[in-house]
Specification:
Keywords: S-adenosyl-L-methionine, Transferase. By secondary structure, the protein is α/β, with parallel strands linked by helices. It has a domain of about 170 residues: Vaccinia Virus protein VP39 (Rossmann fold, 3-Layer(aba) Sandwich). Helix 2 runs parallel beside helix 3 and helix 5 crosses helix 8. It is globular and about 55 Å long.
């Protein structure tokens, strides 16, 4: 495939037929349908991505590193790329799925922007993090084991320059059961409005049950503060999907 030919995108029909339950994996089949899947599954995703560019523009520092951890096909990587106004910055996308990185390389090559992008097929829990001004975890932390989340965020905070920021987008849960039920119902209606059947919704939910572990907004806030960030704010919410900004105070 040439660099000028985009990877073929397919409609997400992965859960359209009844199948034995198995845990969700970011394999080649998911990579092929991922743009369609995330657009139809995550309320607000098409708003969050361009705002990552805006936030990156506000917090990027000259001579720094910018990271997209769990970059998948590179939507947030490319948003960060267009928000970086310093040509001496390094932009690094990291994902442990070889299928995702392979397709991400094509999207990066197709993007008309001069800033180089380094893509690494690595575990975000062990990848090197240094001299960061902006880091993005866009619907990534929820797939990290709960006991590994604080160590990861601490590594990110330790690597972040004063005045730098972390953009953290997540699916959340609610302490109030009535609110949890309402937000879940609205999310499912969003999926139905985007063409998913009840079978698809049910089977995907089952596949994600032991893989995607959501937490409350307050749990995220307290952990980010414990990790070493000085200010945490919610900048976006649509149903049970949110995006937060965690900032290191300037010196």
């Amino acid at each position: 495939m040439s660099k000028t030919t985009p990877p073929m995108q397919e409609t997400d029909r992965l859960f359209a037929q009844a199948q034995p339950r198995s845990d969700f994996r970011f394999d080649a089949s998911v990579a092929r349908v991922f743009p369609d899947m995330i657009r139809r599954s995550v309320p607000g995703y098409t708003t969050i991505i361009p705002m990552i560019e805006v936030i990156t523009d506000q917090y990027v520092q000259p001579g720094s590193h910018c990271y997209d951890l769990g970059c998948s096909l590179g939507a947030s990587t490319l948003a960060m790329r267009h928000g970086i106004r310093h040509d001496d910055c390094q932009l690094i996308g990291v994902d442990n799925s070889a299928a995702m990185i392979e397709r991400c390389e094509h999207y990066v090559a197709l993007d008309d922007h001069p800033l180089p992008v380094t893509l690494k097929c690595e575990d975000i829990l062990t990848t090197e993090l240094t001299n960061a001004s902006v880091t993005t975890l866009n619907f990534t932390l929820q797939f990290v084991a709960p006991d590994q989340r604080l160590p990861l965020l601490t590594r990110i905070a330790d690597a972040t320059r004063p005045g730098g920021a972390l953009i953290l987008s997540e699916k959340i849960r609610f302490d109030c059961q009535e609110e949890q039920d309402c937000q879940t119902r609205l999310h499912h209606e969003f999926k139905r409005a985007n063409g998913y059947s009840d079978l698809e919704i049910s089977q995907k939910r089952s596949a994600l049950e032991q893989v995607l572990i959501p937490e409350t907004l307050e749990e995220h806030r307290q952990r980010l503060l414990a990790a070493g960030f000085d200010q945490v704010m919610l900048w976006y919410q649509c149903f049970n999907f949110v995006s937060m900004l965690a900032i290191k105070s300037p010196e």
